[in-house]
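Support reply, case 0932

Customer input (verbatim):
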Amino acid sequence: MTTLRVIVDQMIAPVPGGIGRYTEELTRALIATAPVDCDVEGIVSASSPEQCARIEAALPGLSGLHRTALGRRELAAAWQLGVTISPGPGMIHAPGLLAPLRRHNRNNDDTQVAVTVHDALAWTHPEALTPATVAWTKAMMKRAKRYADAIVVPSHAVAGQLAEIVDLGDRVRVIGSAVGSGLRLPSNSSATEVVATNLALPPEFLVTVGSLEPRRGITALVTALGMPAAPDLPLIVVGPDSWGELDLASVADEAGLEPGRVRSMIGLTDEELAVVISRASALVYPTLEEGFALPIIQAFHLGTPVVHSDAAALLEAAGDAGLTVERLDAAGYPERLAEAISRVLGDSALSARLRIAGGDRARAFTWRDSAERVWQLHADL
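Our regenerated output:
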């Protein structure tokens, strides 16, 4: 029996975040697509029985769960320093940079380690992360350069950025992610109406995803809505209502928008998020840089037209299924966003075409495909 060990620790982190969800979805798909005579085990830091039970419940079919002797913080520090506690030789797949990277010879003991780098923000936009996260990411990347057998990235855009930062040779593989399995509308229209009512969704609105961190472009979008060319629709921001000293209410006020026209939503369930995105007149994703365009794929999946920036990862994910807005020349970006939004909402033929093209494009991203590529990667190694 050949075993692939996946580091699933992020699933029980205090804030699992996107990597936690990625870990869960990918590992579940790896279990479902395991070749004959192959199985999947998990590696987790020293955790409580309750935490381990949560992992096992979320990943039915997991053949085992190896707990290290160190807690989460201690394990991350130890692996950063090269103290590589692991369950022994074999295949290890890390859905992030948290991995037991050490000198090994995969030809002698079949040990191979693949890590995942979701973006290059630690180098391109360090202000978006904590100083500790930036330092840890850069340190682990140095170890990955020396010891990783493969580096998985979610897009060719990230691969290109990493190539300018560190020489990884031919070890980089592009394997995208997909829409979460829980992102589904309620079972019937009545249930959908109940969710929409509980969320107090307006009859028509725009939706975006992110925070006021400058890289995300939300300030430019709010500014756009105050321009004459913009449609008079409310905006729902799926994300926090503040970042540092900035808050949505102040940004909206400076844009000349009436109170309440811009509101944030946090803590949505997958079902609630599905209702919000599906009910929106358009999803606008103005981010200036991203590793992978998951909100765009989510909107495509739910049949919502998309307006997005020309960031490389977004162009790669969307193809021609969204309406692209040039993000350079920051002073003119809000005006271009306003014009693009008005164009989509004012042209029913264009809106219909984007819905159809988006649905077709969404089918190109599945967790099964991602998992099969991961299995092939380890087979190639």
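We compared this against your earlier run and they match. Two observations from our side: The domain at 189-362 is CATH 3.40.50.2000 (Rossmann fold). The chain has 16 helices and 15 strands. Please reopen the case if you see a mismatch on your end.
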